[in-house]
């Protein structure tokens, strides 16, 4: 039988053999830390409902596909189709999150091996023990990956696709394997438009730094990319034709300063640290900046590390034009871990291991602080990510009697009560929609779950809602109130944004 051609270069394959235990340990740390911080088996967050709700309503792949191709969402449809298929296979919400967690873990493992392979190429000796330890800690305790790596959203699938693209191209054993890297790059474009922040650096790297241009090969490469990105291209056309202004305002309307600060705090703080805790990430930002600058090698423009550096730089440019969504940069978490690992490896080799370990400890301290704030925090980065929803569920279940109406300005409570805590005689309404009759039905108990939401600034919606709520509770007496979720940064956020925020994230009132 003809021997199979190798997929990865000898250096990458050698790193996989030599450091498999290191990578396995880092993956174990990542998965265990994720589970221990409340990932996977948890309540959904608001953006996950953007995935789950259309999937629940769809009756077929085709219906879901048509919905998204016709500008039904600001993202291309591939990740929604993936989660729809997994749901149709019988997977629960928790099992979907396990799939996302596995994708993120694999992306971390691929970049971990790439970092060690690049470090090994630098010298004739095996990678030093301090560098290996640093890599295990940086990849195993990657804060943003731990907080967002299990999400039922597009970012975990996008992250693994980008990892596959980078590794297949940089560590591919031959031209055929590098051509194969066009497949995940195209699929990434059908998953999210941020693929342009990878494709553009790749174009610069291949044609400007590597100076590789082979007409036949490159034509084939971009034809493959185009074929697998067709869903993304059509979605982009639909958005341009139907909702460009709205999408531009939603995605880029925050202003440069606010977007850059939000992205930095969210990315380096694991989407968990609050504004008043931003000082924690200062050493990490400084070390990361040092790492990026120190790895620029003008004598060797084709150095693979330059592709990673340009991917990081592209995200900064996007933030400068007003894109303030740090969770979207999950795919860069393993990229930055690889860059910092390579920088500290040079630090340990050229100077001394103690200084490299010290810098790594500063990064690790910030990661631990971020991870500690993921599940429960009084200074949350994202307010509705710090709500103890179980307290609300327990309060309702303990106090409801007879027929019950539950009105919520928070989208998670209606979803949770309908899917996990169903009960006869209970009706749950989001912003008093038409789901629950209020003119013909009298309820024995009424719970009002209220707090700031994305509709709070929409006068038309709030006027209608407040009028309906006043009608429903007109002849009732408020007999109990609880406050759920605390944001100690509420006054600071109010001052910075001009939006009045209460220190308590949600308030639940009981009327009878």
Q: What are the defining features of this structure?
A:
512 residues; alpha/beta; 2 domains; five-stranded mixed sheet; 24 helices; 60% helix; 6% strand
Q: Would you mind describing this structure in some detail?
A:
This protein has a five-stranded mixed β-sheet with strand order 2-1-3-5-4, covered by helices on one side. Helix 19 packs antiparallel against helix 20. 60% of the residues lie in helices and 6% in strands. The protein is of the alpha/beta class and 512 residues long. The protein has two domains: 363 residues, no CATH class; 125 residues. The mean pLDDT is 91. The longest helix is centred in the N-terminal third of the chain and has 30 residues. It contains 24 helices and five strands.
Write the SSE topology.
Blueprint lengths: L9 H9 L1 H17 L9 H12 L3 H9 L8 H11 L4 H30 L6 H12 L2 H6 L6 H17 L3 H6 L1 H8 L6 H14 L5 H14 L1 H13 L1 H9 L3 H13 L13 H13 L10 H16 L12 H18 L2 H20 L16 H11 L4 E5 L3 H8 L6 E5 L14 E6 L8 H14 L5 E9 L3 H8 L6 E8 L1
Parallel strand pairs: 1-2, 1-3
Antiparallel strand pairs: 3-5, 4-5
Helix pairs in contact: 1-6, 2-6, 2-7, 3-5, 6-7, 6-9, 6-19, 7-19, 7-20, 9-11, 11-13, 12-18, 17-19, 19-20
